[in-house]
Amino acid sequence: MKKKIKIISICLMTLFIVGSLNMTAVAIDGREIMERVDNRDTGDSRHALMGMDLIDANGDVRPRVLEVWSQKVDFEKDLNHNIIIFHEPSSIKNTRFLQKENDGEDDDQWIYLPDLGRVRRISGGQGGDSFMGSDFTYDDLKSREIDDFEYKLLKEEEYNDYETYVVEAIPKNPAEEQYAKTISWITKEHYIPVKIEMYDKDSKELYKEMKIKSDIEKIDGIWTVFSTVMENLDSGHKTNLYVKKRDNNYLLEYNVEINDKRFSQQFLKTGR
């Protein structure tokens, strides 16, 4: 069985998915750290209401509201289906995005745009495009095979009051990836990435940063993150993604029953 790694996609598709681990902090290498990140218990399914604020370099904010469902469909191969529905603003209401993870090959992605009235498949050549005007790309949402990268433990240090491992990941086949490398700050207690640096494929310079902007709290036995920010360091544009409240309570659920039909192209097009 090939192992999948979903560091960035976890933060966008299912921000609140950060599983609970009880592991003794011992001398381990970069590969093992990333395997522990991947091995977290994330539940059989997840559901959340989320805000997505697009913030330009002047600080002007364009708020969006979206809802996310995610369900594990193959436990042995660790494969998930995910769907996002945008509720606000009215200009993008009922835009829907579906992703199905595959074993040993790229995930399948489709988007339904109400103005066009049809489902469009996201091609490999569109992987570097912005996802709905955010600082996340379609490739950022995809899972990756752990074996496709070389890992190096660079150091151990404190970051935002968390003791972390700092791990570099370099793709074995650079032509197939959008970043020259990533560097992740992984908490020793939870094995959660609290900061990720992404380096430009051409210039090799630091290009984007993703940072967790909330405390890590345990909800229903699962360590939970409520907010993360992705920043494009070239443009100064940021995307703040966070769990929202409904009826004065944060709407995030684990291990809920989700109809399989929700992850179909029929639902993608009709919403039912």
Automatic annotation (TrEMBL):
Instruction: Please name the Gene3D superfamilies in this protein's record.
Output: Lipoprotein localisation LolA/LolB/LppX (2.50.20.10)
Question: What Pfam families is this protein classified in?
Answer: LolA_like (PF17131)
The UniProt keywords, alphabetically, are: Lipoprotein, Signal
Q: Taking every annotated instance into account, which residue ranges of this chain make up the domain Uncharacterized protein TP-0789?
A: 81-270
UniProt xrefs under InterPro entries: TP_0789-like (IPR033399)
What CDD domains does the database record attribute to this sequence? LolA_like
The superkingdom listed in its UniProt entry is Bacteria
Q: What start and end residues bound the annotated signal peptide?
A: 1-27
Would you tell me the protein name for this molecule? Outer membrane lipoprotein-sorting protein
Report the source organism. Answer: Halanaerobium congolense
Taxonomy of origin reads: Bacteria, Bacillati, Bacillota, Clostridia, Halanaerobiales
